[in-house]
Amino acid sequence: PLARLPEEWAKEVVRLGGRTFHGKQVFRWLMARGVFEPAQMTDLPKDLRRALAEGGVEPVLTVLPGTRAADRTRKLLVRLRDGATVETVLIPGVSGERRLGRGVQDETESDDADAAAAVDDEDDDEDQGDENPQGKSYLRVTQCISTQVGCAMGCVFCASGVAGLKRNLGPDEIVAQVLAGKAELDDDERLRNIVYMGMGEPLHNYASTVRSLRLLTHADGLAISPRRITVSTSGLVPEIAKLGADFAGQIGLAISLHAADDETRSRLMPINKKYPLAALIEGLRAYPLPRRRRITIEYTLVSGKNDAPLEATKLAKLLRGLPVKVNLIPMNPIEASTLGPPAGARTLEFQRVLLDAGYSVFIRRRRGDDVAAACGQLALLGAKPKVRVDRG
Question: DSSP secondary-structure letter at 342?
């Protein structure tokens, strides 16, 4: 049921004996209020509520006991109807942060680059939804959601793909993570951003990803602004073009780049052999970005692999002319690999090269790593790696 848009619900409720406008009401109960029990849908006729109950309007997932980090980051393990499990993460912002624009930024004074912060600094004045009518301030939360059970991309620094791809998620299963996440928020928190950066490659499950985007942004449901949603991809060039065309560039785009030459990137990310850097950069230049928006470049720093100042120089040259901001992500440890992050001074040196070249550069704060909820750490419950991922 969560995969239906209002007009599709209209057809269904008419079939069940209701009227067309009842479809929008059902959609609102499910998507805007997270209510799955038809008996509680009080503005619907009793006969229609009874028919809906008989038709099986029910949640598509169950939230299992989760883990909460010291910084209030929460990793939720959700079980789907077939028994498969995926993870989604709630990442609270940090109150009182200073935004330093293009200046040097450290782990305590940075734009909230966790999970690639779905909006640019310039967008903030357009969204003042962080206070209620009584003037109470809320903590902004970014939710990182999954699109697949496992992952087929095989990136060496990421736990999601250690057991390979099990299956795609349906659009209802993607949307249900957001509803479950909202239900887990504390009283002083509000969901602000959605990032498709959990388990799986969103553009490898293109149809479900696009349908879920239409559901999440629909005005009669959660009505999340497309400007507050970012889709991350390892570089599926044809699907990047389709995403840009389908949403006129309004959906934020993040690219898992992680290297500035094909040889290094192919060792870290096998997808580069199919879509090498020249094709990827050409696709990014063609992406229809609205005014003042930027593409997020995600660069995981792996000690001894891609973290030398020379690599930063190559990256600066590769990105020249693109409207981008760069998120540097010191690699978070994963069980299937002995690879790890560079020393802090090495990371700052890499950042300095890019700053001197004129880029906006953020070092991603390590959030939730004490509960394995940080970038690259989401994994299948009980999954065993097919191979060790220390190659290269």
Answer: P
